Amino acid sequence: MTARPLSTPFQFDTEFDASGVVVQTSAFRPARRSYAPAEVEALIAQARLEARSEAQTETENLQAMALSAIGQALSSAIPALTQVAQAHREQSATLAMAAARVVAASALDRFPAGPLQAALEALGQEIDASPRLVVRTGDLDDATRARIERLCSDSGFSGVVAFREEPGMASAAFQLEWADGRAAFDPADAFARMAEALNSALAAEAGHAEALNPEPLEGRP
Q: C-alpha angle 26/32/37, rounded to 5°?
């Protein structure tokens, strides 16, 4: 294979017609070997501008690739984050219920007649017309009977108060029976119903929880 020469010292390719008129001028243009200082500065500035533009384009491409990788990582982590958030809700609810049990137990130990007083005040109009009210509770001593009778009187009940002692009931638990109805309170049952309602709410929230969708990262600085 014959190597092509690096340069052609002279090539006469101008064509003339029979009368000497130039039909096709030569395509040969001598390579420029010298530049003025101002032209050199302009060429350097142009080269710098082109290099800066290429570097900026490459940087933007790398940034877009990095943001895309971050978005994919976040999307793959969303299911685990959702499970962690739900577990945090459940643990927080369990802790809150445990704290509420401790506080309520302390309050009931100090004021065992509090729930009964609240019930008599709430049921005042319903039991007012009844001639007899049966109160079932535990640990019925004379002081407890007198306190309950005073509560019934303060709530507006003027009928007969009959007591039935139930040794197995908690100190703050009670049952009220009158001619047209019945009411009862037990701290353990109340907390059981609260826990059941809380668990149902958490289960419903887990089934209808909003998906964690990361915001698009493209275009962010």
A: 150
Rounded to whole angstroms, the Cα distance separating 95 from 88 reads 10
Pairing type for strands 174-178 and 160-165 reads unpaired
CB–CB of 147/163 below 8 Å? Answer: no
Segment 61-77, tens digit of pLDDT = 999 999 988 888 888 88
Answering whether pTM is above 0.70, one says no
Within 13 Å of residue 95, how many CA atoms lie on the same side as its CB? 6
Burial degree of 120 (CB within 10 A; 0-12, 13-18, 19+): buried
Distance CA 93, CA 31 (A): 84
**Radius of gyration from C-alpha coordinates of the chain:** 47
- pLDDT above 70 (res 4): no
Per DSSP, what are the bridge partners of residue 177? 134, 182
23 by DSSP, 3-state: which?
strand
More confident residue, 145 or 15: 145
Residue 216 token pair: 């698009």
Long-range contacts of 126-129 (CB under 8 A, 24+ apart): 126/178, 126/180, 126/181, 127/155, 127/157, 127/159, 127/176, 127/178, 127/181, 128/156, 128/157, 128/158
Amino acid at 124: G
d(CA 42, CA 51): 14
